[in-house]
Structures are given as C-alpha cells and as structure tokens.
Amino acid sequence: MTVPQPPTSPTTTPLPITKPAAACPADTPTTTAAAPPSFTIPPLSLQIPTLTHPGATALLSNTIISTALPKHITTVLTHLYVSPKEPTTHLPPTKSVALFLRPMDGVAYTIGTQAVDGAKEIHFSVDYISRIAAARVKDEIAGVLVHELVHCFQYNGLNTCPSGLIEGIADWVRLRAKLAPPHWKRSTDGGWAAGYEKTGFFLEWLDQNKGDGKGGVVRKMNEWLRKNKYQEGKFWRECVGGEVGGLWKEYGKFVAGGGK
Ligand SMILES: [Zn+2]
C-alpha cells in the first residue's frame, strides 16, 4: 500500500516582496492634468544594418527610440484624429511601423504611404543624421520622425491627393508639434502645392483664419481624403469653404505683409 507523500517543499527561497510605498499625500496632484489620448500604438520595430555608422551612434545617443516612436505616434494621431473616440475622424488601419536606419541619399522616406496598406516602413538616412549639427540633432531627428510618421497614418484621397498636399500636411503636424527647424519660413514661391513647409505654413494660416485654430481644417481635409478622390474645387469648398486660388491670394497678402 502506498502512502501518499506530502509534496516536497521547494528548496528555493522566495524573494521578499517589496510592498509598494504608500502614496504620500503631498505627491497627490490637486489638479488633474488632461491625460494624453490613449491611442493604440501598433507593433514597432527597428533595424540598423550599419550599427557602427556615426549616424546610428548619433541617433541612439540622443534619442531613446523605444519611447520616442510611440510618443511621436501619439502626437501625430492627436493632431490628425484628436482621440480614438472622436466621431468626426476615423483612424487608419496601420498595422505596424518598421524604422530602418541605413546609409542612403536624401533624408528619409516612407513606404506604404496610403493608409490602406497597413504595414509601413520608414527609411531614415544615417548619412544625413551624421551631418546634423550637434545642437540640432535631437530636435531634427524628432522632426523628421514626426513628418514620416504622418505618412504612416494619413489618408491620401485613394491615391489621388497631390503630393504637395500630402507633404504639406506632414510638415504642418511637424510645425504644430513645435519641431519646425530654424530655417523654415513662410513663402509663396511655387504655389500652394509646393509642398513641405511652404504648404504646411499655408495650412496653418488656413486653420487660424478659416478654421477653429485647433487643427480642424487639416483634420477635415484628412477625413475627406479618406473617402473621396481628390477634386480640387470640391475638396477646397467642402474643407475650407472657398476656392484655393482665392485663399492662396489672401495668404500671399498676409505673407507679403510680414506674416503678422
Ligand atoms: Zn514626406
């Protein structure tokens, strides 16, 4: 007959459990700061095939990339979509964002620009990063990442949106995120669709003068581009309430007057 044996006691010593310190009343905030909107951050990854490149070292030593990327994504999503529950906007189905740091010409680009693609890849040049002045490196990296992340989450009129407007929206978010580089200035050279900061500053003026000043104009544009193919007259009338030619003329007077 077998007598059941008690289970052998574990030989390992349990680690002492540290009790969380009681909240100190002095630490309790008296006013509740608005929590940032809790957007879902898609899976993120990083690849650095040339890890010893000076540009890779510059990025890794100036930026905690594992926390910077989700922070920048929240910034982008807040500007384009306000919050996950905002009824007037619809979040895109971006499935993942992969950041590649590698030697290449130019600054950066994003593959899978149209929001329906799901999987996005940002390619960022370590050659470019290695040439940024030390005083600018942290902000410039953040600014470029915010710009490229806009491409990961913006709509493009079912592939019909003028690239100048796509790039303008990306730089408008960078401007609003207070990451505009010091050399940026308002300019009307090349027309409203010149792109980048030229179009970005125009969008900012439109929002301040024809919109709510809280980014409503750009969000309306992005939402419009989710559902419709770009048609110039219809797009500008429905998003801003006027023709782009007239709005651009008015903006030109503002810029010529010193932009005050
Ligand atoms: Zn771009």
Tally of individual helices:
9
Distance between the termini: 97 Å
Strand content: 5-15%
Structural shape: globular
Radius of gyration, taken over Cα atoms and rounded to an integer in Å: 24 Å
- Average pLDDT reading: 89
Number of strands: 4
The profile of the biggest β sheet is: 4 strands, mixed
Ligand inventory: zinc ion
Structural domain tally: 2
Biased composition (Low complexity): 10-36
Region (Disordered): 1-36
Pfam family, one: BSP
What does this protein look like?
This protein has nine helices and four strands, in the order βααβββααααααα. The protein has helices at 54-62, 65-81, 126-131, 137-153, 163-176, 196-210, 216-227, 232-240, 244-256, and strands at 44-47, 96-102, 108-111, 119-125. β3 and β4 (119-125) form a beta hairpin. The chain is globular and about 50 Å long. Residues 1-11 and 18-30 have low confidence and may be disordered. The structure holds zinc ion. Residues 147, 151, 167, 170 line the site of zinc ion. The site of zinc ion (ZN) has 4 residues, from α4 and α5.
